[in-house]
Each structure stands twice: as C-alpha cells, then as structure tokens.
Design brief:
CATH architecture of the largest domain in chain A: 3-Layer(bba) Sandwich
Distance between the termini of chain B: 33 Å
CATH architecture of chain B: 2-Layer Sandwich
Strand content of chain A: 25-35%
Helix content of chain B: 10-25%
Oligomer: heterodimer
Radius of gyration of chain A: 22 Å
Number of helices of chain B: 2
Shape of chain A: globular
Number of domains of chain A: 2
CATH class of chain B: Alpha Beta
Distance between the termini of chain A: 43 Å
Order of helices and strands of chain A: HEHEEHEHEHEEHEEEEHEEEEHEEEHH
Strand order of the largest sheet of chain B: 3-4-5-6
CATH superfamily of the largest domain in chain A: FAD/NAD(P)-binding domain
CATH class of the largest domain in chain A: Alpha Beta
Number of strands of chain A: 18
CATH topology of chain B: Folate-binding fold
Largest interface: A-B, 24 and 24 residues
C-alpha cells in the first residue's frame, strides 16, 4: 500500500502529535499512459467501484478510470443516499442483497469512513391490498436471505408518532421494515473507492472526456479522449445518465431514456427521523442527515432531459407528498434542491453485459436506484470484465432480455421508461 | 415548461402527458419480413439525444390532441410544436 497510507484512530493521534505533516493527497493525479489492459469510462460510484474490485478482488492491473469532470461529480454526489434490498423479483433481489452485504463490510474493506448507517427503512402501506403486496415482498426478501418485518399500525406509531395516521383518504395501516437498510455518506463512497483503487495502482484520470471508441475487426482497441488516444484491451462503460451518448460512439442504441430526478434538503432541524420512511400513497421518501437536514425526494419529472435541474410541477408534487405524510414538514424551510440525470430503462432494471463488440462492456440503466447498487454493481462489472462471465447475482441483467421477453419489471409498467 | 399548442395557444406542460420519442409514430409493418426485429427496435430502443428531441405529448387535460414537440433536452427550451396528426400524415400514415 502506498500514497495516502492507512487511516486509523492511531494515525489521527500520531498526526495530531506531529503537526499533521504526514497527511498526503488521498489519490494521485497521473498523466494517462499510452495504453491499459482495462479502461473504465466514468469516474462515479460505479466506475470507481469497478476499478477497485478489479484490482483488489480480481487481481488485475494496468487499469485506468477516465472521468470527463471530477471524481464523484455525477449521481453518486446527487442522490438521497438510501441503501436497501427490498426488491421482489428473482432477477433483482439476490443482487441487491449482495450489495447490502457489501455495504455492511465496506468501510473496513476500503479503509475509509463512509458513515454507513443501518438505521432502517420503513415502507408504509395504506390499504389491505398494499399490505398483502408487502407481505409477499417481505417473504420474497426473506427467501433470498434478506431481512423483512411487517409492522402493524401501532408498531409504526411507536416508531414515528408524528406521521399522519388518520389521513381520511390514505390512513397509515402499517409498514414493511427492513432494519438493515439505511443511509450512507454518498460522497465518501466515491472517495473511498477512489482512494482504494489508487492505492492498488489504478490511474484515476480526471478532466478526460471520451470523444470516441475505436474498434478494429469488431474488437475494441482504445478510446479517443480530450487528452489524446489511449489504447485498451477492454473498455467498460459506467456512465449512467449519459449512457446513450457514450454508446452512440459505436452506433449502439440503448433501451434507455435519460430523465431528470430532483432531490431536496430542508434547513437543519433537531433529531426527528432516525430512519428512512417512504410514503405508500404517493411517491415520497425522507430521511434526516447527520447535519439535521431532512433529505427527501419523489418522482422523476417524466420527460427526456440531460439538464441537471427539474421544473416546478414536481417540486409541488413532492411537497404535497411530504405534507400528506407528515404535516409538520410544512414548518420547515426548503434549503436546496437539485437534479440528477437517470438512465431510465425499459423495464426499470439495470444492464451489466457484454456488447456485440469484443472487449466493450456496458453497465447502466440504473433508473433512480443506482446508489444502493454501487458496491455490487462494481463487483459484478469487475467480475464480467475480468472473467467474461456474469456474476451469479447479475445473470439477468442482459441486453437481450427485451428480445427474449425476460424483462425484470418490478412495477409492471411495461416499456414506458418515465413510469418506472 | 409552456407548450405553445397550435390550436389553443400557450398551455402549461402540466396539462399534458408525455409519451416519448416522436419516432413512435412510425410503427413498423407487422407483416413485413423482419417484423420481429423491427418491433424490438421500435418498442425498446431509443436515440435518447442530448440536444433537440422531437417527442409526443398528449393534451389530456385539454383538447385530447397529440402533439409533436421539438424540445432541447439540455435546456428544456421548446422550439416547435406541431399537431401529431399533421406529422403522421406527412409521413404517409392514416391517409
């Protein structure tokens, strides 16, 4: 291990006693080499995790991550930081449970404080039919080794007495709790993976936009970038939000539309919500950051967009959801809102797969659930890049599932990306 | 966003429902050779451009007309609004 060294409590004390002169930058800022064995396009959470696991878990070397802006400047820095594995379908649940298990050991693994906080997530239900659906979902989760707990109204009231239990139209009847779910300090995830990858010799190259992907006889040979041509034996694309733009370099059209999702933070409040709550009668989810701000969000805006900002109708819709769930939120002022660009896929599930071009691999279509998937996405993509075989939890995330009718459609919405 | 409806004038985008790329007007011929592949591409694949995008909006809270809106996906600026009926007829559909 080299570079920034090992972080520990002992190190903090030692540096404090020696004038903090021993700290070094957490990663290098290398010039790109002429060629690499592996190039990962996209220095976000998924790309950095891929590089990290390629080096650490699959013992590969000569790896570079190319990022057009700065590390972690995309969706890994723009989300609502929730982790969970409460999916229903066989194609999804093992993957997300694998991811949650990786979250549980992540900080020790990459030696960085990512503030992984398993404070629990609670999905509220408001009708008998919704309770039955959550019973089924909870059973599916338990069958795949995850934890799930169906709570009645009194149990929910004991946890969150301030919720609007007697809403005339949508009374709260209970909730499905996953106590291992929670939140993570999102930026620290990117930084931890970046530092861990850098320490294992991965070149993290920022301000390096990919402008073309070169192929020869159906095989990838490298990428053209704003810093010149860089050769590569294998290229992995992990640029969710901009997948269609990057894959257009090789003429590929994807089962993906880009949409904008907004998120919001209130002013800092005293401790109020100790877990994550999602509203079952509207699209609204909320948690409280360690700084005290309520972090919440709702639906995507619903039209194709690459602008990292949304419009007022969805702001109003999210605020209405919040007021309906917990009326006292109306007393808090909104501090900030922002937007991120999502790869909305045709069935609401992601893709981790080879392409028709040898040596070119794709990871995307995360819809608005990419953050919780970061560790498993990196691990499974690294597995595919290193071994040319899909990881056992990611075998369903294929391009050809649409052709074969094997969609993984959690919401049952069909091929309409803005409804997932 | 304000959509300048060709018949009704400027209307708030909230009155509309969004479907997607206006290429969906050009539904493939189900009896032509290669129809299965054509329908896969039609149903599941999108150009998803960053920049000008022609897309279908349905005026559900209004006159129930389908519109083809040309909008910049980088800025949300709307530059052209046409009746989808006119666009479809110019493509030779529904004569």
């Amino acid at each position: 291990m080299f570079g920034s060294g090992h972080y520990s409590g002992f190190r903090v004390i030692k540096e404090a006693l020696t004038g903090h002169k021993g700290w070094r930058p957490a990663w290098r800022d290398p010039e790109p080499q002429k060629s690499y064995d592996f190039i990962i396009i996209g220095g976000g959470g998924h790309g950095l995790a891929t590089a990290y696991y390629l080096a650490k878990q699959f013992n590969q070397s000569r790896i570079a991550v190319l990022e057009k802006g700065y590390l972690g400047g995309g969706n890994v820095g723009r989300n609502t930081t929730i982790i969970r594995s409460n999916y229903l379908l066989d194609g999804n649940e093992p993957f997300y449970e694998f991811s949650l298990k990786l979250w549980e050991g992540l900080e020790q693994d990459f030696n960085f404080n990512a503030m992984v906080s398993q404070r629990g997530i609670l999905n509220l239900y408001h009708t008998d039919a919704q309770r039955d659906a959550y019973t089924r979902r909870g059973n599916a989760m338990i069958l795949h080794g995850a934890d799930a707990d169906l709570l009645d109204r009194d149990q929910v009231r004991a946890m969150y007495p301030f919720l609007n239990f007697d809403n005339a139209r949508f009374p709260i009847k209970g909730g499905l709790a996953q106590r291992r779910g929670g939140t993570v300090r999102h930026d620290a995830v990117a930084w931890g993976y970046a530092r861990g990858a850098d320490q294992r010799g991965v070149d993290l190259i920022q301000n390096c936009e990919v402008t073309g992907i070169r192929t020869e006889n159906g095989r990838v040979t490298g990428v053209d970038t704003s810093r010149g041509f860089i050769g590569a034996k294998k290229v992995g694309v992990a640029v969710a939000g901009n997948s269609s733009r990057v894959m257009a370099h090789v003429g590929m059209r994807l089962p993906i539309e880009s949409h904008v999702l907004q998120a919001f933070v209130s002013e800092g409040l005293k401790p109020l919500i100790d877990g994550v709550i999602t509203y079952g009668a509207g699209h609204f989810y909320v948690s409280q950051s360690d700084k005290g701000g309520l972090v919440f969000g709702g639906d995507i805006d619903g039209y194709n967009s690459y602008a990292q900002r949304g419009n007022m109708p969805v702001v109003e819709d999210v605020a209405e959801g919040g007021m309906s769930l917990m009326p006292m939120i109306g007393r808090a002022r909104l501090l900030r809102s922002w937007g991120g660009i999502m790869d909305m896929s045709m069935d609401g599930s992601p893709i981790i797969d080879r392409t028709d071009i040898d040596g070119l691999y794709f990871n995307g279509g995360w819809c608005y659930g990419g953050f919780k998937a970061t560790p498993a996405s990196g691990w499974c993509f690294a597995h595919l890049l290193a071994t040319d075989k899909p990881h056992e939890t990611a075998t369903a995330y294929r391009f050809d599932r649409f052709r074969k009718g094997l969609m993984i459609d959690e919401k049952g919405q069909g091929a309409q990306p803005n409804l997932h | 966003m304000i959509i300048n409806h060709p018949i009704l004038g400027p209307r708030d985008a909230q009155e509309f429902v969004y479907l997607g790329d206006a290429a969906l007007i050009a539904r493939p011929d189900g009896l032509a050779p290669g129809a299965q592949e054509a329908f896969h591409d039609y149903l599941y694949l999108r150009d998803n451009p960053a920049g000008l995008h022609r897309e279908l909006w349905y005026h559900e809270q209004g006159d129930r007309s389908w519109l083809v809106v040309t909008r910049n996906t980088l800025t949300h600026e709307i530059t052209q609004v046409e009746l989808a009926r006119d666009v479809a007829r110019s493509l030779g559909r529904s004569k």
